[in-house]
Amino acid sequence: MRPAGWFALLVFVCLFSLAACQQVAPESVPQAEYSGVVLEPEGQIQQIHDPVIAFEDGTYYVFSTGRRIPIICSPDKINWESCGRVFFRNPSWTRDINPNLADIWAPDISFFNNRWHLYYAVSNFGTQNSAIALATNTTLDPESPNYEWQDQGIVLRSQPGDKWNAIDPNLVLDEEGNPWLAWGSFWSGIWMGQIDPATGQLADDPADFQHLADRSAGPDRNPAIEAPFIVKRGDYWYLFISFDQCCQGAASTYNVRVGRSDSLTGPYMDREGVPLTAGGGTWILAEYGRWKGPGHNGLLVEDDAYWLVYHAYDSKQNGVPKLRLESLSWDAEGWPSLPSQTPEE
Fold this sequence. Notes:
By secondary structure, this protein is mainly beta. The protein has 2 domains: 1-30, no CATH class; 33-341, Tachylectin-2, Chain A (5 Propeller), CATH 2.115.10. The chain contains 2 helices and 23 strands. The strands form 6 sheets. A 5-stranded mixed beta sheet has the order 2-6-5-4-3, with no helix packed on it. Strands 1-21-20-19 form a 4-stranded antiparallel beta sheet, with no helix packed on it. A hairpin with a 5-residue loop joins strand 20 and strand 21. The relative contact order is 0.13.
């Protein structure tokens, strides 16, 4: 958002000096504060875990962890209903990772090279026996005759002893539209590699992977960091990550931290200047009211609004995970916060 007075001045200057207009860069305009809002989603929002959100042709879609990757959809981000599942059955290769696979984890949805890319994870809880894979589609509309998810197989595999755990993918496009994949859970934290836009597969050699965040290197030596999600606003890239423990109902201690960098590949720093690779991370989301262990967020950018979806455990309904949705507030220094975290007056 830019002050209205700035636009008026710019128009006046442009009328008299084309050169002056050419010298004004958008990045040089101070960013005004922006206040977020909390939505209260309704309908099919139970048992939503690790959500990610996308928009196509008037409909919002949320993908989440679950059997064959469940999908819910909404015309307004408030009223949600079931819109099916990505797979009719688990891809056959998943049996090599986990022969007793029930849920597919942590899907991530993005659009590039004229198709939707759904990265997802298959694993065994608490181990590095994991893989990130890819499914593609030309549309998200299950009523379209062109709707068909095609599995493209494994993108990244991890084994015990690797530096990373191949779960929790997030695809982000750089300034030139080139795709990069971030991932990671526990062990040495969050990593990133470049993606071949034609195939959706990793283009980087593992030796060239970028290390973005590592809590185990911090003062508390706690490895509990996962679920990266990266967006750009103004001059900065923002890396959101989840700390502590999920998946324990109302006893979950999940919370979300953030750092930022002027380069997609880092280094990312928190508000105090602590590198995220040294355990840094500025707190942005923790339990509030009935909602315990909020975390594993996704983001959807609509004009000035950065909509953050996440799951939280409802302490008034036996700790069931539900969809939560709110937009980020931004202060004058370009740091985000969430309205749910503001104490009520």
